[in-house]
Design goal:
homodimer, globular, mainly alpha, 55% helix
Chain lengths: 445, 445
Amino acid sequence: MPDPGPTPLPPGRPAPAPRFGAPALADALARTAAPAAAAPTGRALPTRPVLPFGTAPAAPAGPPPEHPPPPAAPAHSADALLRIVSGPSGLGTTALHWARSAEAPAVPELPAVPELPAPAASRPIPGLYHHPVPEPDPVRVEELSRRIKAWATDEVQAFPPEWEDQFDGFSVSRYMVACHPDAPTIDHLMVAARLMVAENVVDDAYCEDGATSPDVGGRLLLAHTALDPLHTTEEYRPAWEESLSSDAARRCYRSAMEYFTQLAAPSQADRFRHEMSRLHLGYLAEAAWDATEYVPEVWEYLAMRQFNNFRPCPTITDTVGGYELPAELHALPAMQRVIALAGNATTLANDLYSYMKELKSPGKHLNLPVVIAEKEGLSDKAAYLKAVEVHNDLMHAFEAESAALAAACPDPRVARFLRGVAAWVDGNHYWHASNTYRYTLPDFW
Amino acid sequence: MPDPGPTPLPPGRPAPAPRFGAPALADALARTAAPAAAAPTGRALPTRPVLPFGTAPAAPAGPPPEHPPPPAAPAHSADALLRIVSGPSGLGTTALHWARSAEAPAVPELPAVPELPAPAASRPIPGLYHHPVPEPDPVRVEELSRRIKAWATDEVQAFPPEWEDQFDGFSVSRYMVACHPDAPTIDHLMVAARLMVAENVVDDAYCEDGATSPDVGGRLLLAHTALDPLHTTEEYRPAWEESLSSDAARRCYRSAMEYFTQLAAPSQADRFRHEMSRLHLGYLAEAAWDATEYVPEVWEYLAMRQFNNFRPCPTITDTVGGYELPAELHALPAMQRVIALAGNATTLANDLYSYMKELKSPGKHLNLPVVIAEKEGLSDKAAYLKAVEVHNDLMHAFEAESAALAAACPDPRVARFLRGVAAWVDGNHYWHASNTYRYTLPDFW
């Protein structure tokens, strides 16, 4: 899992960077036009209410840029993108966040963008493309904070008493309220918060500096069975069941998953298991490189980081929002690409915010600036700034592909899911930028 | 991947062993009744013809048992099971294979079971519960053999010339024709055959004895991107694309996946990626235990083997059969349990057939008999015979849960998929029992 900062805001920039992968997208949409078109009138899904998205945050226009804007995008201008975004109709599509940019007021059909102050404590990385969010609802944050701590300490004994400061400093409740503005209840937020805590406990206990051992492959697989259960004989099942309460990692996974599956449809649970198997593959690749002191090529690092990635978190946005993106729509290659781009962008944001923290950790901790510096012979500062650009390119690609998919697949659940992923990306950035307990920025500006 | 023997047949035994997990099944079916019931009249799926299953093999009654029958099953008698199986109606449900047993003629509504001779070269493990299959169509076998070899040698250079004997001895064409009796064309069989070859090449190149290296976690992840593509920037994408042709493992994965996705719906491709990420997690757990010389508890071994498992192969049965089991039905907990039980039974059959082969390999090769002998203090023979019983228990559980699911979820696609999984299990057993090039049996009888 990515290890989930400071200065005035660079602007929201609506124009996407050069689009890549357009042929793949076109191919995907061509392959999938029939089910997408048929979806709105199709078979009833396990019903949970599809809620209006009234709590969605409105993004501010932001202060003037400190850095020059990117070159004009060759494939879509900002206006063209906004026209694409205005294509889909249906529940909540007017609130697609990527239309909420500095240029949004130029498009009359989009809602006015209120001017919101940046959160007082938020210190975004200069030049990092992002969308600010309003401060999360303090009432929700407080209630979620109380409940998630009770779960962590009383129900699953997630950490020893001496880790309490770190748990509090992680601010998981503020994090989850920021990332899931459409969660209908605290119960829904608890589902996200438990999984987030569980994922971090497993990472800390099995994978982070000093915790990795040569048998991490075996340990992670046994922990994975708390998510994806063992099916075996009566003789051997009890020992497996007992193992699920034998350490904090498995206690957290099991409990968090049990609550999750009470809320999720089977295909949402299956989706989450898949994401977690990807995450565990990513952990194991990173562990292997650490054990062999291998410094990967930049593309290899990016591949590993597509797996050791935040992706399990935004992809539960529909469960936490109380609705379901049907599996056929989730599996569309264009949707998979959007999710991957969002996950990659937000995971690299984590690399950038945790750069100083990781510099202080023992041994060489791989992150994108470190790998770029070593493999491309750049200074630390130049490598860091290049990593910012890689992140920005991925963010632009995510937004362009997301808008194109929303236009091509006018199903309100698609629009809402895409908006949920974007809200998660924005909330995740907010949390990093405002979490001064964990993160400080390098002196590169 | 499991490393994919001899004597007259023990009988097909229709009565399931004690059912385990009934509460989980009931819970699953209760949770999912609505979508299952609604499915047949629901939204149109990407259309591929649903074909009559006229080529399904009829299983013989088999010769009389050499071993005493198991104790009477407490939950279902054979008759009760057959009545359950006769419940579902729809395309092809009369051919659900688990009804084709030695006792089938006692139930008048089931078709008569023709007496087929056991394949001449088949030497099943005594006492191993299985269903014999007729010899695969030699015309299909020959044509598939020609085409898969051309793919392996000309298109992807899957192996060096000195491995040609091993490739031929693997008999992948006979294997796949036996496992996919409802494949409408050789093109469909080629999809299964390419993936099977690719999975074995990756296993041989990265994971099998002598090939495992401390960086296997990194290598497998990079290979996995040939199935689950990297989404990155224009600058780094070309190096990743080049990597996909840089070794036989990735060439095989990439090509096999490309062909597969031409035939598969997006959710079928997503399902397969999930199965492959499970497989790779299993490889990495096994590699970690090998590296640390850890001998797992029996339940731990069974957990690892649920991942390092044949499961990716039977779960493409619908794609190879030219139809689609919708993702919502595939994700049902009861369906996931059936698939896991089938995968576990058939994977343990592999442990039993490859026991002698693995005894001869360098170092200690973990398999179920070896782990039982070491952890439970049994003789090699007693451990082997106990492993046979574990296999049989899982087979009985698979059949009981499969029948219950077919009855509870009367969707013809569910029935056909379940039958396809069962056909795969049977074909896989046939291949092991008849592959005297690879396997010999211990002298335990």
